[in-house]
Each structure stands twice: as C-alpha cells, then as structure tokens.
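[PROTEIN RECORD]
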Amino acid sequence: MNFKTLVFYGSYRSDRQGIKAARFIIDQLKQRNHEVIFVDAKEYDFSILDRMYKEYDQGQAPAKMEELADHIRTADGFVVIAGEYNHSIQPGLSNLMDHYLEEYFFRPAGIVSYSAGGFGGVRAAIQLRAFLSEMGMSTISSIFSISKIGNSLDEAGTAQEATLTKRVSQFLDELEWYEEALQRQRKEKGTPF
C-alpha cells in the first residue's frame, strides 16, 4: 500500500543538526514507497502566527500556505521531527504547524526527537505528543529518539549506528499500521465531525 506522508521539521539554525534526522527519515520512507513531502519551516518561512489558514477567505491565503494546506488535507500521516530546546520543541516548528488545525484531523503522527546529548530529545517529544494530540492527530505510541545526533548520522542522513536502522523499521511499521487503519476509516465511515 502506498502512503502520502508529510515530514515536518522546524529548526531555523544555520548549523542545524536535525536536518540529518529529516534526511534519514525521508530516505527510510521512500524505501517503503511513501510519497514524501518535506515541510521545512525554514523553506516555508511563515511569519509569526497572525492569521491561521482557516481565517483567510477562500482563495485568499498566501500561495505557499494554500499549497501546504492541500498537502496536509491529502496526507495519510505525518512524521514530526523535533529537536529539544529548553526541554520543549523548537519555536519554528510550533509556529509552522499552528497555522493549521482541521486539516490535520484524524491522521496519525509519528514523533522523531533528537538532541546533541544522550537523552535524544525525549523531553521535547513528550511536549510534542500533547501539542499534536490537541491538533487532532493520533500520535503513535513509539517515539523514535536519536541521541548524540552529531555522531549518529552523517550529513547525508546515513546512519552511523546499525541500531538506528533497526529501530526505525519498527517505528515506521507502527506508523503505517495507523496510516492504513485511519485511511480506511475515513474512506468507509467518514469522520465524527
């Protein structure tokens, strides 16, 4: 089965390490025949939230915002990649994602967290789980955390540790299970609202 999966990434830093995690996940998804849309906050560069997508009159939202809304509405699921900033998620990530709401409803999200240290950004992942659930996404139970990202992945996003490739397989198996189940439910029974 083929899935359309959006990969959200929110760092604006000039020497951002998390881009390696994004490249790794994108490659793993493509190997599984996903249609992958990379949603890089730095590329979309929405200003600080003033108006949500839904607050524009139809056809009046900026072109990039409209394009992303269409991708979100037609996605089967999401992977959200978050570095840990002060025990929470990056402001660029939350700002990007906050521009939308109903578009996310009834789709699963997998969380990838990372950090320079040994905890792998799990404190950010815990914050992110509540954030994504509030936006109407079902977060899968597994969190894919990457510790010491500077050494775990090279610039191309190639794993430098065999355990990463092994662990990501189980994470993506679970995401795909939810993508298929919720896709089927949306098609056959619609959504509660």
